[in-house]
Write a structure and sequence with these properties.
77 residues, mainly alpha, two-stranded antiparallel ribbon, 3 helices, 2 strands
Length: 77
């Protein structure tokens, strides 16, 4: 879950630190993409079924970027 709080930025809640970071990073990326896309015309949102499939796919990819980000800052696992 990600919420925007006026004057404070975003707050992300997830079952793990890895998922929270993943959601925070990609929420910002997706917001930028959506803003750019809105200049092209009306936004066509995903159906609930499409959203569920996308979420399931994305949740399976959390560890790949987490490992990359961890290595890039020299984090010890």
């Amino acid at each position: 879950t990600c919420v925007l709080m006026r004057g404070h930025g975003s707050t992300v809640v997830a079952p793990s630190l890895e998922r929270a970071v993943y959601r925070a990073v990609y929420a910002e990326e997706n917001a930028k993409l959506q803003l750019s896309a809105s200049a092209l015309g009306p936004i066509e949102f995903l159906t609930p079924e499409e959203a569920d499939k996308a979420m399931n796919t994305n949740e399976g990819q959390v560890m790949r970027p987490w490992e990359l980000w961890s290595r890039s800052i020299g984090a010890v696992e």
